[in-house]
Specification:
Elements: E1 2-5, H1 11-21, H2 26-36, E2 42-48, E3 51-61, E4 67-75, H3 84-98, E5 103-107, H4 110-113, H5 120-123, E6 126-127, E7 135-139, E8 149-150, H6 155-158
Parallel strand pairs: 4-5, 6-8
Antiparallel strand pairs: 1-2, 2-3, 3-4, 5-7
Helix pairs in contact: 1-2
Length: 161
């Protein structure tokens, strides 16, 4: 299994993974819109025997500091719970830190995302349409430069159905 940056030729396989991992096409459409908008800052695939079995994307957020939004993350259903999503997220976070991003936000299950260091308490001071117990933040390379203000995901998120 290898993790590498997505390539244009991967688009159809990534879409198949997203459509299999989620109940509808929204996440697959979101990834395509983020890509088309130039908002796919970090986009990684997990490849096993030439098959794409997982995908993660990080996009820029409007925030009081250099921040990314994590998501979507998708793993082929027959490969879930095997560490693929974990590996994709960790690699993406490492790349974000190496590129001097200061923080990452995610909207998801705290029980899952806490293992990476995400904390709902770090996101509490930020105004967002997604504010609440499922919006979490992670500081990269030091404390977050701000603890309040407004944060917004890339525009494609606002166009979700």
């Amino acid at each position: 299994m290898i993790i590498r940056p997505e390539q244009p030729a991967d688009a159809a396989a990534i879409r198949r993974v997203l459509e299999a991992a989620f109940p509808g096409p929204d996440e697959a459409n979101l990834v395509e819109e983020l890509r088309a908008d130039g908002d796919a800052v970090i986009a990684l695939v997990s490849v096993d025997a030439a098959d794409i079995v997982g995908h993660v994307m990080f996009s820029p957020m409007a925030a009081p500091f250099r921040a990314l939004g994590l998501g979507p993350v998708a793993v082929a259903p027959d490969r879930q719970r095997s560490g693929i999503g974990d590996s994709l997220i960790r690699q993406g976070l490492a790349e974000a830190k190496a590129a001097d991003w200061q923080g990452v936000f995610v909207l998801g299950d705290p029980a899952y995302y806490r293992r990476f260091g995400f904390d709902p308490a770090l996101a509490q001071g930020f105004a967002s349409p997604y504010a609440g117990p499922h919006l979490m933040a992670l500081a990269l390379g030091g404390p977050l430069p701000a603890t309040n203000g407004r944060v917004d995901y890339a525009p494609a998120f606002g166009r979700l159905g």
